[in-house]
Amino acid sequence: MLFKYTAIDKTGNETAGSIDTINKDVAISSLQRQGLVISSIISAEEKSFFKREISFFDRVSNKEIVMLSRQISTLFESQVSALRVFKLLGSESSNKILRAALIDVADDIQSGKSISDALSEHNKIFSPFYVNMVRAGEESGKLDQIFSYLADYLDRSYEITSKTKNALIYPAFVTFTFITVMILMLTLVIPKISDIFVESGQELPIYTKIVVGVSDFFVNYGIFLLILVIIGGFFLWKYNKTEQGKSSISQFRLSIPYLGNLYKKLYLSRISDNLSTMLSSGITMTRAIEITATVIGDTTYEKLLNKSAQSIKSGSSLSESFTGHKEIPSILIQMVKVGEETGELSNILNTLSKFYAREIKNTVDTLVTLIEPIMIVALALGVGVLLAAVLMPIYNISSAI
Where would I find the Type II secretion system protein GspF domain in this sequence (predicted)? Predict the structure, then answer.
C-alpha cells in the first residue's frame, strides 16, 4: 500500500515523499528508523467500497500456525537470527494476513522489541498461551525447543477439537434434514390430502386429526413461528455475549447427557496439556493457570481456574485448589497430588492429557457408532407415523367406495 508523508529530517528541514509498505504502522516504523519525525502520513490508495479487496473470510488456520512453529524451530536450530527468520517466513507465506503479521513482527524485532512482545501485537493470530511460551523460551534460551513444543501442542489440540466437532456434524445434518422433510410434508403435502378427508365426511382417527391440526398450524402460523425463531435466535446470540449468558450456556452445555461429559473431557485435556507444556518450559504455576484460563474456551472452567490461581497465591497447592469443584474429577486431583509429592507434576499432567485424549477419542467413536442407527430409526419412525396418519384414512375411503 502506498503512503504519502511529510516529515522533519535530522537537519531540521521538512521533506515529503511516499513509501510502499504493508500497512500504516509499518510505514511509520520504517520512516522513524530513517531518523525522520513524521508530520503527517496518509494513504495514497484510497479505494471505493466496490474496489476494496474483500478479506472477510481471510484467516490464519491452526495448521498454518503449526507449520510456522516447526519452520521457526528448524531455522533457530540452524542458528539463523530471529530477524532473518521472520523476514524469510514473512516473504514466503502464502496467507496474506500471516505474511503481513510476520513482516510486522520482523520490523518490531529490528526496532528492539523481543519476539514475545512483537508476537503479542497480533493477539488474533498468536494466543496468550503462545506468546507466554515464547517469552519463557527467551528467558531460558531454548527458543528452538519451545517452538517445537508449540507445534506439537497445537497439533494435539487441533486433532482433539476437530474430532469433537466432526462428531457433532453428522447428527446436526440428519436432524436438519429430518426437520426440513417434516415441514415440507406438513405445509405442502398434508394440506392437499386433508381436503380429500373433509370432502369424504369420514370420521378421522385421532392421530390423523393431530397431524392435520399440526399441518394447519404450520400453514396458517408458520411465518409467525419463523419470525419468532429468528428473534429468539438473535436474543440468544446477544445473551451469549454477556457474562451471565456465557456462564448459563456453559453450564447448560456441560449438563447435557453424554455430550456434557464429552465437553468436560475436552476441557480437562486442554487444562492438563497446557499446564504440562508451560510448567516444563519454566513458567510459574500461577502464571500457567492464569494463561490457561484465558484460552480454555469455556466460562465455567475459566472461573474455576481463576479461583485456583487465587488459592495458589494464598499458599494452596494445585491439588488443594482443585478440590471441591465438581467439574474436576477426583482421579485428576489424586494424580496431581501424587505429582506434587514426587516432583513429577509436569509428567503426571502430560499423562493425564494423553488419558483424556484417548477418552475423547473413545467417546466420539462410540457417539458416532450410536448416532447413525438412532437417527435413521428416528427419521423412519417420524416419516412412518406421518404416512400412516395419511394412508389409513385414504384406505378406509377407498374401501367404503
Answer: 69-191, 272-393
Strand-pair partners of 19: 3
Q: Can you list the pairs that 159-164 forms with residues at least 24 positions away whose Cβ atoms lie under 8 Å?
A: 160/266, 160/269, 160/270, 160/357, 160/360, 161/266, 163/360, 163/361, 163/364, 164/262, 164/263, 164/266, 164/360, 164/364
Q: What is the mean pLDDT of residues 286-299?
A: 86
pLDDT value of position 44: 57
DSSP-derived secondary structure for 93-132: -S-HHHHHHHHHHHHHHHTT--HHHHHHT-TTTS-HHHHH
Report pLDDT digits (tens) over 198-240: 777 777 778 788 888 888 888 888 889 889 999 999 998 888 8
Task: Give 8's strand partners.
Answer: 14, 37
End-to-end CA distance of the chain: 81
Identify residue 30 by its one-letter amino acid code.
S
pTM of the complete model: 0.67
Q: Alpha-carbon Rg of the chain, whole angstroms?
A: 30
Whole-angstrom distance, CA of residue 194 vs CA of residue 50: 52
Tell me the DSSP string of 167-225.
HHHHHHHHHHHHHHHHHHIIIIIHHHHHHHHHHHTPPPPHHHHHHHHHHHHHHHHHHHH
Task: Output DSSP code: residue 352.
Answer: H
Instruction: Provide the angle, in degrees to the nearest 10, between the axes of the packed helices 128-140 and 285-295.
Output: 150
| Number of other residues whose CB lies within 10 A of the CB of residue 56 | 5
List the grid coordinates of 53.
479487496
How far apart, in whole angstroms, are the C-alpha atoms of residue 161 and residue 364? 11
